[in-house]
Specification:
alpha+beta, Beta-Lactamase, 11 domains, 6-stranded antiparallel sheet, disordered N terminus, kinase, histidine kinase, PAS, PAS_fold_3, phosphoprotein
């Protein structure tokens, strides 16, 4: 340990400290250092000698040290004499099996010790800097030969801790054999002092066995007292990637001549400079024949006349791709695609062309164009919106219908800017999960979704039917997918209306069919079912039916249906006086539909005595009118919600009310007819007895028995006299049921009691019957067992009054009015028959009464002879046919016949002859009213009767207009049912119950299960494959028999192809003819099952994602209550679901700003805060993030993330305490860093100057070389001319040739020297601008072009190109030097970093004026982009991703400094990972800000 303490380790002091902070033991030097004896020191605590340490923080210090195991810090100790001494403390946590304790090694901080601590911290920071930069430090002891590798070598070479200390032979053995000699030689030169620094690239073996290229830089840093080197320090940097890139570049350069496409160079005149082997083979020429020839030799389309303009266009654009045709040496022509790039080098300009034979592609393109034209026509002419997307969800093609639809949906007008994957309206629906099936499996998916319209006046919704299908290329690969939308909003609304209409029509048909069903015993059940059906269809909470008495004074709730949870009110709504609610009932009498709400003042619901349910009540009442009378009303009530009743509701309810009215009229007519028939038949039964040809003593007995049977009474009797004063009376005749006979004495003479005498008095005082009831304790009940009695007095002429009576013994009985009238009529007839001499008169009176019945019957009665002459009619006949009594004399039956077969007299006479012979005829026909010609249907019954002294025909004629209308309505209802059955969107089938034999199917069934209607009808469902197993169907039928119906039962049916379908099956019986059959309704659940499966998978993924979060995750509702948490949070805080966040987790009632945070998140903000929380007495720190969960523009919930940052906070606190001691060291390091920055920036400028000089030399070489060649040639011609002159052999032709050659040479010399002068002038101007901050007005386009011309040598060695888009008249009053430096650095940055690994890239430089004061200058490339973690640091000095590979990290820092400094502007960078490119945007003032002369600096002074 002492070896690690430093030079003053002999002063080390050792303390042993317990958990309570008390000193357990100390080393001897401690006593001398502090001036305390040992026995006194072991009684003190640590804060007694370190008075700056608070005792209350000891436990925190103990816990922190227990976790960290070791602390190093500086502090102060106080001696016994009160003096203060600064110390360095190294505290260790010690646990040897007993009680844990702290061992603290304390070193007094002398000046030497302080210097040592400062140096140690400096070395630690240097090691950190090296580690961050990717360099691995190493140290070599030159005396022992031992090398110590840094920790970074573990990642660099895979060397573990045991291999980091190696001797010379070991680490030299790791070096590649080919590099060992070079390493040894340079090492010896560095050690001997021949070279100051060892810098070499070499290979070293990784622990895994592969070779790693390293760049090492090392120097001797320490010598012994004899001047011999003793210590060497150095770093290793991994340059493997750079070496591999260099090898790849060499391979690229070597492979050009072997390229698989033709590559050629030609100059500005179009002469071939170079062509590779592929180009020669494609043209059929040897290379030497092509070199030097013009391009038009094999390219007849080469623009010879317009070549200069074409060359300038190529030069301006940098790259041009076009098509042409080449001609081979043997004359064959073939199409080619040429990619021409302008390249300038050595003062020469060239065009580098890549030529590709596109014969096959042209043929394919021709086929493709035909296909594309066909496809384009389909797309454009398609009335449905059609959009084609690429694999990223971007739009590549669309038609006009798609544009119109997307404008309607609120999407961008430019579909090119739309991305399907980014549309949250598609993503919210969950349909994007299906898209991989389209792209990977080639499936076509179809779904319906609700698309929210984003409009200023609200967000209505479009209903869309969407289909996605894949698009494959020629290889069968899926490259795109297409989407079609069908707007089904109106269809959905129409479907809803149609569904309601069909349901209402079906309900009307069902109600109508039920109401016209024969029999009236179950009418109440029918009406209750009707109300339930209406309530469920209209979604009302209560439906009811009121009946109004014939006098219109009272209304009663007779039937009611209530939805679950609704209180019935039928008992509270009985016998309501209509006069108390006259406005309401007057509106109903006027035929109006009354709608009302509980809070409407004009239609208060006062006829409802109470409204127990809270809230608004919406009511609608429809009158039930029969004839001209209000029979009642049908009502619907909405209690749970406010309801607006539509015209469809009103129409439906009116039709139901008509059915109810017809039913009630039919019932009343039926009852009236029944009662009337019973009345007539009863009278007829009595009359038959009274008019028997043979009268005997049993006639009264027969009459009594007949009366008891007619009235179904328990006893009937005749007694006399009906005298209240008589002492006794005689029961002349008694007819009783067996169980009630024998109650009278044998003499049949009884003494009337008081009750009977009272009845006598009432009967004598009244013409009608007297009704009496008896209780079980009455005398009559005890004596005769009578509960009810109806009696009437008979008054035969010349006789005392008699009494005719009926007893009801089994139960009390209410005698109806019709029974009383019949009883009275019978009594009158029996009274006439009491005496023999009045019997004939009785018969006459009976016939008169029968005539009254004849006249008063509701049916028309006609008596006519066999020729059709009318003999007698009743009043109903006159009313029905619109005749007067005097019209009958001139009217015949033929006059009453309407259109139809009975207008033929032959048919009538044949029918009447049959009736006259004893037949009875019953038929329907059409009658006609003679006066107005109106026709109407009737039912006719014909029978023969004696009339006077001859036979006649009795015709009962009943008007059946209403019944015919009801039957027609039923027929129309059946027709509507058939149409609804066919068009129903659900699959429907009608089959027999036992066999399942198919009677009919609708269209949806055919499309869903396959097969045509003709193929299916007559076969069983098992035969067509719906049921795969007959036992499954048998079980389903058995369940149907038990339950009476099937409602929404999940089943699996099979199509004819055997494909299983998940469906909901409903079935019930209906009557077709006289047979009950099966009506099955099937709803396909296949898409629903798929959606449910996708939903379950989505929920599982969400749950797994939440559980995988390593910190506390919560989901809160909008009110701030927890609704969901993950396992990590539950372990820390327990189960908090349902609790208020303000009182739980990190808030715990201690977060005073919770309310403000909650309001901010509700407003859509993200709140990120750090909280200090006391948990079980311990202060903990948490980072708490609250984020809104948005749904459209609203906030549905809140996500909360909580991370424990206690350890980080404590570390920051400790670092803060150390920071105060680093100021001096920071100042020193800052000065050194500034000096290094200056040197590196100077090196950066020198490197740029080197590149500039190299490029300049390269550019000047061409014109100067040309000038030298022309000069030498001209000298040769002059020498030849001088020799000819000396020989006297100079000819005119030779002189003219010399002059012509001389002129050409002078022209060439002038052009090349001018070009060299222009180049030097440009470079000079750029150099002057870049080495000064001289302000002037300059043209931005010209300045940019001049800078790029100096970079052309660098660009010529690559396939990269630069495009410029700057207006020619855009000028700036600024500093062109810094701007040119900026352009140079940005281009260099793109070439070095942006196009790393890219063969051909594009740089685009653009500028335009924002307004009169500012311009926007942009530099963009399509390179690899900048990762997000790097993008935030690109403007930092010395930050580079190519450290050790020539990058200094100052290029973009210089750009940033010049933009924001000299030019007074701003710069931003936009980029992403992948080949998405990088965009630098500069916003610069057109007039740079003024600079004070005292502050004027050169570009070099900026740094």
């Amino acid at each position: 340990m002492n070896a690690r303490l430093g030079p003053d380790s002999g002063d080390a002091l050792v303390y042993w400290i317990g958990r309570d902070g008390r000193i357990l033991d100390i080393s001897e030097p401690v006593c001398a250092f502090l001036g305390y004896p040992r026995d006194q020191l072991v009684t003190l605590s640590i804060w007694d000698i370190n008075r700056a340490f608070p005792a209350e923080r000891w436990l925190d210090h103990w816990a922190s040290l227990q976790e960290a195991r070791q602390f190093r810090f500086q502090g102060a100790h106080w001696r016994r004499d009160g003096s203060r001494c600064e110390v360095e403390v190294v505290a260790h946590w010690v646990d040897l099996g007993g009680p844990p304790h702290i061992c603290a090694v304390v070193t007094p901080l002398t000046e030497g010790r302080k210097d040592y601590v400062t140096l140690r911290d400096s070395e630690a920071r240097l090691a950190l800097a090296l580690d961050v930069s990717g360099q691995a430090p190493w140290e070599l002891d030159l005396i022992t030969g031992q090398a110590m590798l840094g920790q970074a070598h573990a990642a660099l070479l895979g060397r573990g801790p045991t291999e980091r200390l190696a001797d010379r032979e070991t680490w030299l053995g790791w070096v590649h054999p080919a590099d060992q000699n070079q390493i040894v030689r340079l090492f010896e030169q560095a050690v001997s002092g021949q070279i100051k620094e060892l810098k070499v690239d070499f290979r070293m073996r990784h622990a895994a066995g592969h070779w790693v290229w390293l760049r090492t830089i090392a120097r001797v840093v320490q010598w012994d007292e004899m001047g011999r080197p003793s210590r060497m320090l150095g770093t290793h940097l991994d340059i493997t990637a750079s070496k591999r890139a260099e090898e790849a570049l060499q391979l690229t350069q070597a492979s050009i001549d072997r390229a698989s496409i033709a590559i050629a160079w030609h100059d500005r005149e179009g002469r071939i400079i170079y062509i590779n082997e592929k180009g020669c083979r494609s043209l059929g020429y040897p290379r030497d024949e092509l070199i030097g020839c013009r391009v038009d030799k094999f390219d007849p389309e080469f623009p010879i006349e317009d070549h200069d303009a074409a060359w300038e266009r190529l030069k301006r654009k940098g790259l041009h791709v076009f098509e042409s045709r080449h001609v081979t040496k043997d004359g064959r022509s073939f199409p080619v695609e040429i990619t021409a790039t302008h390249i300038a080098t050595d003062e020469k300009e060239f065009s580098l062309s890549f030529v590709r034979d596109i014969s096959e592609r042209k043929a394919a393109e021709q086929s493709l164009r035909s296909s594309e034209a066909f496809l384009d026509s389909i797309i454009k002419q398609n009335p449905m919106p059609l959009i084609i997307f690429d694999g990223k969800g971007d739009v590549v093609r669309h038609n006009q219908a798609a544009i119109e639809l997307f404008r309607a949906t609120g999407a961008p007008e430019r579909l090119e800017d739309y991305n399907l994957f980014e549309d949250d309206r598609v993503r919210g629906g969950g349909h994007l999960e299906e898209l991989p099936k389209v792209l990977s499996e080639g499936r076509t998916i179809r779904f319906q979704n609700r698309f929210e319209l984003r409009q200023a006046n609200g967000n209505p919704v479009l209903e869309l039917d969407t289909t996605l299908f894949p698009i494959r290329n020629a290889n069968g690969d899926i490259t795109h997918f297409a989407l079609t939308h069908v707007d089904i909003t109106e269809l959905k609304a129409a479907e809803a209306r149609l569904r309601y209409h069909l349901d209402s029509e079906q309900a009307l048909a069902d109600i109508s069919a039920l109401m016209i069903k024969p029999g009236w015993d179950d009418l109440d059940a029918r009406l209750n079912w009707m109300l339930e059906r209406i309530g469920e269809l209209t979604q009302a909470d209560r439906t009811f039916l009121f009946a109004i008495t014939a006098d219109g004074l009272t209304a009663t709730n007779t039937h009611e249906w209530c939805a679950p949870g609704i209180t019935p009110q039928i008992l509270d709504l009985q016998d309501i006086r209509t006069a108390d609610h006259s406005p309401f009932f007057e509106s109903l009498r006027d035929g109006q539909a009354v709608t009302a709400r509980a809070d409407d003042p004009d239609y208060p619901l006062r006829f409802k005595p109470r409204l127990p349910e809270p809230g608004l009540h919406s009511l609608i009442c429809i009158p039930v009118v029969g004839g001209n009378r209000l029979l009642g009303f049908l009502g619907l009530e909405a209690i749970k919600r406010q309801r607006a009743w539509s015209q469809i509701d009103v129409r439906f309810l009116r039709l139901v009310a008509e059915i109810v009215a017809h039913t009630q009229q039919h019932l009343q007519s039926y009852r009236a007819q029944g009662e009337h028939t019973w009345f007539l038949e009863s009278l007829d039964r009595i009359s038959r007895i009274l008019t028997r040809s043979r009268r005997d003593a049993n006639i009264m007995t027969d009459l009594t028995r007949e009366i008891r049977d007619i009235f179904q009474a328990d006893r009937a009797y005749l007694l006399h006299p009906c005298d209240p004063d008589a002492e006794t009376v005689e029961v002349t005749v008694e007819a009783a049921r067996t169980e009630y006979s024998g109650t009278l004495p044998e003499t049949r003479v009884i003494e009337p009691n008081a009750t009977l005498r009272a009845v006598f008095r009432q009967a004598l005082a009244s013409k009608g019957p007297v009704l009496t009831g008896f209780e079980p304790d009455s005398e009559d009940f005890r004596q005769y067992g009578t509960r009810s009695r109806m009696a009437i007095a008979l008054r035969p002429e010349a006789h005392q009054p008699w009494q005719l009576g009926l007893h009801q013994c089994d139960a009390p009985r209410d005698w109806t009015g019709n029974e009383q009238r019949l009883f009275q009529t019978i009594a009158e007839r029996i009274g006439d028959a009491l005496s023999g001499h009045l019997l004939l008169r009785q018969l006459t009176e009976s016939e008169g009464r029968y005539r009254a019945v004849f006249d008063n019957t509701l049916d028309a009665v006609i008596i006519h002879d066999a020729e059709g002459h009318i003999m007698a009619v009743n009043k109903s006949m006159l009313d029905i046919f619109g005749l007067d009594a005097q019209d009958i004399a001139t009217c015949t039956v033929a006059d009453l016949c309407g259109p139809g077969p009975y207008q033929e007299s032959r048919l009538r006479l044949h029918l009447w002859n049959g009736v006259m012979t004893g037949d009875m005829a019953r038929f329907e026909m059409v009658c006609r009213r003679p006066k107005d010609g109106q026709v109407f249907p009737v039912e006719v019954i014909l029978r023969a009767i004696p009339f006077g002294d001859r036979q006649a025909i009795l015709a009962n004629v009943r008007d059946i207009t209403e019944r015919t209308r009801a039957e027609e309505a039923l027929r129309q209802s059946e027709e509507r049912f058939a149409k609804a059955f066919r068009a129903n969107p659900a699959a429907m089938l009608i089959s027999t119950i036992e066999e399942g034999r198919i009677i009919d199917v609708n269209d949806r069934w055919q499309s869903l299960f396959g097969g045509t209607r003709q193929e299916l009808i007559g076969r069983t469902t098992t035969e067509v494959g719906v049921w795969q197993r007959s036992d499954v169907r048998a079980e389903a039928i058995e369940q149907f028999r038990r339950d009476g119906q099937v409602r929404d039962v999940p089943m699996v049916f099979f199509t004819r192809a055997g494909v299983p379908l998940d469906i909901l099956w409903s079935a019930e019986t209906i009557t077709v003819g006289d047979e009950k059959v099966f009506l099955s309704l099937v709803n396909d659940l296949t898409e629903q099952k798929r959606a449910e499966h996708a939903l379950r998978e989505s929920e599982a993924r969400l749950s797994a994602a939440i559980e995988s979060i390593p910190f506390d995750f919560f989901l809160l509702d909008i009110n701030g209550q927890y609704v969901l948490q993950n396992t990590a949070s539950r372990r820390r805080w327990g189960d908090v679901v349902g609790r208020d966040a303000a009182t739980a987790t990190v808030h715990q009632g201690q977060d005073a700003s919770w309310g403000a945070k909650l309001d901010a998140v509700r407003g859509g903000e993200i709140v990120d805060a750090e909280l200090e929380v006391n948990v079980d007495g311990e202060e903990l720190f948490f980072r708490n993030v609250l984020a809104p969960v948005k749904d459209g523009d609203g906030v549905r919930g809140i996500v909360e993330l909580t991370m424990d940052i206690t350890a980080r906070k404590r570390t920051e606190s400790e670092l803060e305490s150390y920071r105060s001691h680093l100021e001096e060291l920071v100042s020193e390091r800052t000065a050194a860093l500034q000096q290094a920055m200056s040197q590196l920036m100077q090196a950066e400028k020198l490197a740029a100057l080197g590149n500039l000089v190299a490029g300049l030399a390269h550019e000047l070489n061409t014109p100067l070389g040309n000038a030298r060649m022309v000069a030498s040639t001209l000298a040769e011609h002059i020498n030849d001319l001088a020799g000819a002159i000396e020989r006297g052999a100079l000819s005119r032709a030779q002189l003219m040739a010399f002059l012509e050659t001389g002129l050409e040479s002078v022209d060439l010399l002038e052009r090349n020297t001018v070009r060299a002068a222009d180049l030097i002038s440009h470079v000079k101007e750029v150099a002057i601008d870049q080495t000064s901050v001289r302000r002037r007005v300059f043209n931005l386009l010209h300045t940019t072009e001049e800078v790029l011309s100096t970079l052309s040598p660098t660009l010529k060695r690559t396939e990269h190109r630069i495009e410029i888009d700057i207006p020619p008249n855009l000028e700036m009053d600024s500093y062109p030097g810094p701007l040119e430096q900026i352009i140079t650095n940005l281009v260099s940055n793109s070439l070095t970093h942006g196009f790393a690994g890219i063969q051909s890239g594009l740089i685009r430089i653009e500028a335009h004026a924002l307004d009169d004061e500012f311009i926007r200058f942009s530099h963009a490339d399509d390179g690899v982009g900048i990762p997000p973690d790097v993008r935030t640091r690109v403007f930092d000095p010395f930050f580079t991703t190519r450290l050790g590979q020539g990058g200094s990290g100052l290029g973009l820092y210089i750009v940033y400094s010049l933009v924001t400094g000299a030019l007074g502007g701003q710069i931003t960078v936009t980029s992403g990972e992948g080949q998405t490119g990088t965009l630098f945007t500069l916003t610069l003032p057109r007039r740079a800000p003024e600079r004070q002369s005292s502050q004027a600096r050169t570009a070099q002074d900026v740094f």
